[in-house]
Amino acid sequence: MLWSEFPAGPQLLHALSQQEIDFGTTGEVPPLFAQASNSPMVYVAWEPAAPQSVALLVPNSSPVQQIGDLRGKRIAVNRGSNVHYLLLQILDEAGLGLDDVRIVYAPPKYPLTPSDLNAVDAWMMWDPLLSDAENSGQFRVIADGTGRVNNHQFYLAERGFAAQSGDLLQVLLTALEQTGRYIDAHRAEAAALLSTELGISAPSLMHALARRSHQTQRMNLAIIREQQTIADRFYALGLLSRAIRVRESVWHP
């Protein structure tokens, strides 16, 4: 087995579309862009909502105090990611459109350098980078996903691999279910192990792990409908290249 790491979901799904990997996990928005681009991707499973794991951050010294203050501000966001959807929801809540702010598409990054701090006014981040930024004491959360987005995590497979290796996928899902239960019951141990792997402090990872459940669940009609709602929103705004039907990209064992 070959293990590959990616900075974010869009990059992982690009590799899957090129058949460089067979299986991976991303947030809820990257699969929508992948499907619109005719990626050979299928949904296999998902994890419960984690709305506090995504947020819009500003430096402590920022004049931005509430979402209405974002008008005219430069906001960094990873295009086609979960935080992209959160940004749309935040702007809508504030009565702002995409033309009312200056969107800077950029991959996820933390720690931020002095040049990063000068380049934009706010950042859309997700855990564990979000937790690390919060724990630094240098940033403030203006709005997280609570009441705005669900922020689900999905497990995805290359369509051909899923068709040919259904038995293996079932074994993998069982292992993910067991691992998820273990992580939720032993978060401190999981944080310590991940700290060495990711180069992020154990307290930051503990914070990130504590605000989400890792209970892997099989695909169902309710979660498919949630995904379809997000897809329709992105398409209506002209951000998806074509309309999609999420149900057409769901694995049926």
From TrEMBL:
<keyword id="KW-0813">Transport</keyword>
<keyword id="KW-0732">Signal</keyword>
<dbReference type="InterPro" id="IPR015168">
    <property type="entry name" value="SsuA/THI5"/>
</dbReference>
<protein>
    <recommendedName>
        <fullName>Putative aliphatic sulfonates-binding protein</fullName>
    </recommendedName>
</protein>
<dbReference type="InterPro" id="IPR010067">
    <property type="entry name" value="ABC_SsuA_sub-bd"/>
</dbReference>
<dbReference type="GO" id="GO:0016020">
    <property type="term" value="C:membrane"/>
</dbReference>
<dbReference type="GO" id="GO:0042597">
    <property type="term" value="C:periplasmic space"/>
</dbReference>
<comment type="similarity">
    <text>Belongs to the bacterial solute-binding protein SsuA/TauA family.</text>
</comment>
<comment type="function">
    <text>Part of a binding-protein-dependent transport system for aliphatic sulfonates. Putative binding protein.</text>
</comment>
<feature type="domain" description="SsuA/THI5-like">
    <location>
        <begin position="15"/>
        <end position="189"/>
    </location>
</feature>
<dbReference type="Pfam" id="PF09084">
    <property type="entry name" value="NMT1"/>
</dbReference>
<dbReference type="GO" id="GO:0042626">
    <property type="term" value="F:ATPase-coupled transmembrane transporter activity"/>
</dbReference>
